[in-house]
């Protein structure tokens, strides 16, 4: 009976994540097709499209398409080359040349495309340097994945050996990979499109909407794979860290160092200028759906997790939800908020200032 109940739990959790991911993909695709051309107009108050904005629809549609494609390919390769597997509780799977036991759920690849699209678009709307926006996109992806992957691991939506240290069963190298691939993609795609926009050829710009996201995905995948190879075959073995590995081991140092650098760069640039964009409902839907869904699924599994993992439910997911929402809304009405803050500051200083001294007569 317990086994039947556990299988029902797994089926329910996996179906909830699948349906949510497919719905979000449709919402994001609708945004790419009908709204992506207009976001510069809405941010700046312009009444006409900028020349480069005419190609935004194709650029963002292909960002979603290639994100899904590379997500499926990468997951198939990871399942083949590593020792983790997805369960048999998903509705749809990507056809795999390596057999039934090494299949990858279609929703996983679709989730790659949704996160890549969402995080890159939010970062590109900020008035920051290319590097700062790329790192901002990587941190956004990390803040969402930090809720998704632990819940998937605890719910046994994927299984495999877990090294230490890890975050609720997810190795820190997994989060390092997410940071690298989203940051690299965002940087490459912005550099390529910036170079393409200087061209006078309309044909070059229209064709670039297809190949630039593809090349950027390929470069980001190559950078992440090369970094993973160097770390696991050269850097980590050379440290002679004993097993079981302590908490402060090279894996944690690499991940923590990468996050710290990103926070310093992004924090400095956000304070200097973050833009004045308006929130987009289709983009906000991603964290508003994924984080509460993770929390709800973790609640259904409370009886099957220990007290340490239970902290994921009580603290980690709400924390990442708040962080993600602040990041997604950063820059909203910035000029208006700053003007109001300065006005309030002047009123406070005027009230706290001592009254002017009145000279006494004769």
Structure explained in plain terms:
There is one protein chain. The chain is mainly α. It has eleven helices and six strands. It is 71% helix and 3% strand. Strands 1-4 form a two-stranded antiparallel ribbon. A hairpin with a 2-residue loop joins strand 5 (166-167) and strand 6 (170-171). The longest helix has 37 residues, at 202-238. The radius of gyration is 23 Å and the shape is globular. The chain starts with a helix and ends in a 10-residue tail after the last helix. 39% of the residues are buried.
Q: Quick summary of this structure?
A:
Helices cover 71% and strands 3% of the residues. With 362 residues, the protein is mainly alpha-helical.
Shape: globular
The proportion of residues in beta strands is: under 5%
- Mean pLDDT over the full residue set: 80
Helix residue percentage: over 70%
Largest sheet: 2 strands, antiparallel
**Helix and strand sequence:** HHHEEEHHEEEHHHHHH
How many angstroms separate the termini? Answer: 100 Å
Which blocks of ≥5 consecutive residues have pLDDT under 50? 1-8
Strand order, largest beta sheet: 1-4
- How many H/I helical runs? 11
Topology at a glance:
Blueprint: H1 2-34, H2 39-44, H3 56-81, E1 85-86, E2 93-94, E3 104-105, H4 106-124, H5 130-154, E4 158-159, E5 166-167, E6 170-171, H6 172-196, H7 202-238, H8 250-272, H9 281-300, H10 307-329, H11 334-352
Antiparallel strand pairs: 1-4, 2-3, 5-6
Helix pairs in contact: 1-3, 1-4, 1-9, 3-4, 3-7, 4-5, 4-6, 5-6, 5-8, 5-9, 5-10, 6-7, 6-8, 9-10
């Amino acid at each position: 009976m317990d086994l039947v109940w556990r299988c029902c739990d797994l089926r329910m959790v996996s179906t909830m994540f699948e349906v949510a991911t497919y719905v979000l993909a449709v919402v994001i695709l609708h945004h790419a097709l009908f709204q992506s051309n207009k976001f510069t107009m809405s941010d700046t108050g312009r009444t006409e499209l900028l020349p480069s904005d005419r190609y935004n629809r194709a650029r963002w549609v292909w960002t979603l398409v290639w994100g899904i494609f590379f997500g499926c390919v990468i997951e198939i390769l990871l399942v083949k080359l590593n020792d983790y597997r997805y369960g048999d509780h998903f509705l749809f799977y990507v056809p795999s040349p390596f057999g039934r036991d090494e299949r990858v759920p279609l929703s996983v690849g679709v989730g790659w495309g949704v996160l890549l699209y969402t995080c890159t678009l939010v970062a590109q709307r900020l008035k920051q340097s290319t590097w700062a926006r790329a790192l901002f996109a990587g941190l956004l992806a990390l803040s969402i994945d930090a809720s998704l992957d632990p819940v998937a691991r605890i719910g046994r939506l994927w299984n495999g050996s877990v090294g230490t240290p890890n975050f609720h069963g997810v190795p820190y190298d997994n989060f390092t990979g997410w940071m690298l691939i989203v940051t690299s993609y965002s940087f490459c795609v912005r550099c390529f499109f910036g170079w393409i926009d200087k061209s006078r050829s309309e044909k070059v710009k229209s064709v670039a909407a297809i190949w630039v996201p593809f090349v950027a995905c390929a470069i980001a995948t190559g950078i992440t794979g090369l970094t993973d190879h160097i770390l696991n075959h050269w850097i980590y073995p050379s440290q002679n860290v004993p097993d079981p590995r302590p908490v402060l081991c090279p894996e944690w140092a690499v991940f923590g160092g990468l996050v710290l650098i990103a926070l310093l760069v992004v924090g400095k640039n956000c304070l200097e200028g973050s833009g004045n964009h308006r929130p987009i409902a289709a983009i906000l839907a991603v964290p508003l759906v994924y984080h509460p869904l993770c929390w709800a699924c973790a609640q259904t599994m409370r009886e099957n997790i220990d007290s340490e993992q239970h902290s994921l439910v009580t603290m980690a997911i709400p924390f990442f939800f708040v962080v993600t929402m602040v990041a997604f809304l950063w820059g909203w009405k910035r000029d208006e908020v700053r003007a109001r803050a300065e006005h309030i500051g002047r009123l406070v200083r005027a009230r706290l200032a001592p009254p002017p001294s009145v000279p006494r007569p004769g």
